[in-house]
Here is the input.
Amino acid sequence: HYNIVFHKLLAVIMLFYALGHTFFHIINYSLAPDQTLEKFGTWPFISGFALFLWIFYIFSASHPAVKQVNFEIFWYAHHFFILFFLLLLVHGHGFWNPNFYKWFAIPGVLYIIERLIRIYNAKKAIRPKRYFFKKFLIFICIIFVIKQILCLHTF
Here is the structure.
């Protein structure tokens, strides 16, 4: 449960940072448009707009009303994070983001480790649990006893 709460907290923080980042670039452009375009070019603005729409889409698809009605929207939106990080990689002057490693290092490594653990666990042989077998036997015995009682009872 706490991992989902933490995940949602990170999502809200990321959305607000994206809003602030976009807002201050708009302010910067409004104060010095020629210098801003000369320094950055137009690509960071185009890719930044696309990244912002992507974050907004992922965030919106995570709303409980959307998730309960159409879980596939939520699922696909969250799995498009790979394309989001690829676009983040080229979000910068000259189609390169020199700060990409700061945004990808920790979550990327954690995601890769989690995927490797999933692959490892998927290859393990699945053995039936003993408690399931015991409950199954008890169920069969109850059915047998009920049949015996019904056979002995005269209607």
Summary: Residues 133 and 139 are 10 Å apart (CA to CA).
